[in-house]
Automatic annotation (TrEMBL):
This is Aminoglycoside phosphotransferase. It comes from Phytohabitans flavus. GO terms for molecular function: transferase activity. Signal peptide: none annotated. The lineage of its organism: Bacteria, Bacillati, Actinomycetota, Actinomycetes, Micromonosporales. It comes from the Bacteria.
Amino acid sequence: MAGVEEVKVVVAHDERATLRVGDVFLKIDADQTRTDVEVEAMALAPIPTPQVLWRKPPVLALVALPGMALGRLGEPSPASSAAWAAAGAAARALHDAPLPPWPGRRLDELASRLDGECEWLVTNGVLPPDLVTRNREVAEAALRPWKPVFIHGDLQITHVFVDDDKITGVIDWSEAAQGDAHYDLAVLTLGHEEHLDDVVTGYGTDVDLDVIRGWWSWRSLVAARWLVEHGFDPSLPGCEFDVLRSRM
């Protein structure tokens, strides 16, 4: 049809899909609670976020961000050390902001989820028991009380856009909530441990590296079943299973 932009599928699975049409992202999500959180979180966040063009449930239209994503899990990041440091500074600005009015996940919920996913991984022969046990032990460092801050909740590198070593925006805020600052930093550097020092430098305050490593293990263990069931492969080089193996 004349005048219609090319439609590109950015990501799609059973829960939601994101399409790009020209300079517009169309996010389709059957769970409007997630979209409610995303829209409110972007309005509250003190860092750049996409402009909301319109919302007609189940679709949310956003202006595409300039620049490129910080990188992808399983691939070398094309971004500079300065860009990674800028991502750390953006995370710090978010964590210093007033808390969002809705709570995050409780510590006991996170521990229970970890137990359940570890049992599933072993029972179904997805990973060797010793690998799961070791990473379960490493994850204990993250499962401790923390002072809640405003977290993005899914601050993976594909959600952080940079241009000329500056952050142009952060996308996908549906998991934003009150939570542990270390969790955001861990998700940001998952599979890219070589850039952890850059992020910590940009963050500009003390970071407990054992807690970061604990969240790496927690995230990789609990994400595995969801990834497999939604058509993603955590066993690809540099992805979640390699993150787990690096703890051995």
